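Sorry, explain these tokens?

___
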Amino acid sequence: MLGLDGSLVFLEHVFWVVSLNTLFILVFAFCPYHIGHFSIVGLGFEDYVRASHFEGLITTIVGYVLLAVTLIICHGLAALVKFQRSRRLLGVCYIVVKVSLLVVVEIGVFPLICGWWLDICSLEMFDATLKDRELSFQSAPGTTMFLHWLVGMVYVFYFASFILLLREVLRPGVLWFLRNLNDPDFNPVQEMIHLPIYRHLRRFILSVIVFGSIVLLMLWLPIRIIKHMLPTFLPYNVMLYSDAPVSELSLELLLLQVVLPALLEQGHTRQWLKGLVRAWTVTAGYLLDLHSYLLGDQEESDNNANQQPNNNQHGRNNNAIPVVGEGLHAAHQAILQQGGPVGFQPYHKPIKFPLRIFLLILFMCITLLIASLLCLTMPVFAGRWLMSFWTGTAKIHELYTAACGLYVCWLAIRAVTVLLAWMPQSRRVIYLKVREWSLMIMKTLIVALLLAGVIPLLLGLLFELVIVAPLRVPLDQTPLFYPWQDWALGVLHAKIIAAITLMGPQWWLKTVIEQVYANGIRNIDLHFIIRKLAAPVISVLLLALCVPYLIAAGIVPLLGVVSEMENLVQRRIYPFLLMVVFLMGILSFQIRQFKRLYEHIKNDKYLVGQRLVNYERKSGKSSTSPPFPQTSQE
């Protein structure tokens, strides 16, 4: 792509690449860093910057800020003396620096603030102190900052997702003070360019206040209430290792590979949340007489839907500014978008409207507090109770108990919704559905036992014998195998192998997996899965496990070798046979490649078009046979 192909222009391209890289580093890294460094040293803040453990990053950001201030001053001076070209160039440079700093603030600083605030407000939940966080930061500053930034980014993402869900339920125009991320006219870079700095600063401060208040309402206050009402419930156990007989690695893999994907991939969760939000909105609207404000009038919505073509035609012909009577939010949208409010619907304003809005906000805060209390207690209670049957009195990580309890709660809610959907039907229909679902559950359990139980166990045991045991256990020691850990590792390996198979070329295993995935759970074909998928895979894994063992334990002792050699063969036969199979695969691949190369050379030399001709050397002797008439080919 750069012309580095060994031609005569090689040095020219190398020179341009090196020059451009040097110029880029000089302009965007070297100059801002040294500007910030000289400023910090001049102000005497180098000790504070050095204590932050991010001296280079902070110094560079300070340099960019000072560079932006310098560009603003120079831009003003250029405008004062009417240097148009210099003014335009300085303006473009200032816009680049401004957008870069705003991106750093929006994507880097704001999630980091949210993450640290979440951590500070949840210290009592984990029985931690600020001193512990300080020690953690001193020991690993980069990792600590990254984890807090990641937590803050997840919090901001889910908050934005919930706002998008609210927009699907509420009347258009209710959330006029929040930016609509799904709006096709929304352009964050354009806003960064056009809006002044004080507007961005005001928006940043308001965002910090709103997000921080929500954290106080839904995390800090529920923790205080739980500690007061249930003194023995907190703190959560978040130790890294457990004294239970179950391995932490196994639980983590079980959580990541089984519980969370099955919970997150279900589309019913979002529908349930949307239904709850709509039910709460309807209830609050009728209690406070704000149904028209929150959801709009159904009759007016129908009329607007019928008159929408005429309104669109009128809007195209007359792009007028909205009247003042449409409300403050409509005017705000008109100012931002320089036109009429998009998607705004009128509503009926009841008496004492500000008081009703205040009561609505108070009702919303109480609802969020109760929901947070339930989310912090119910899944953990259920998970601890279920885990007690498995691990006894041993304490395990609360992440696993919460995930287990959340999954059980989801299953219970799903079962209740299914039963409620079946209740209006007749007994015969319910009996047929129960029979159908029972049969489907039995088939699913059998398939899960084979595909999620036997195959991962055999795969994990094979991996343990081939890779882990030869590398970790010396020859004079006996390896110990834990079926639970082998199964957990086998689940991970099975998912990786399945993903690689689906991304690879077309062969029988990929075809079978795609067919099973296309059938789904409702149309599960037990006979097809056992005959085409489970039986071949289990047979191959059993052969891979049993044949080396039979050779090492049955044939080698008959040869009369010493016990040390028997032990060596038993411990190294699995990786040896793997290496043999690997070499045979490489050899067969190379043989096929050489055959293809041979066929390619032969076809290039002897194949003319679609006709194979003989190749003979010209002899000096004249041929006695009459020559064939030659035909010219065009």
Q: What stands out?
A: The first strand starts at residue 607 and ends at 608. The chain is about 75% helix and 0% strand. Confidence is low (pLDDT under 50) at residues 1-5, 240-249, 299-342, 619-634.
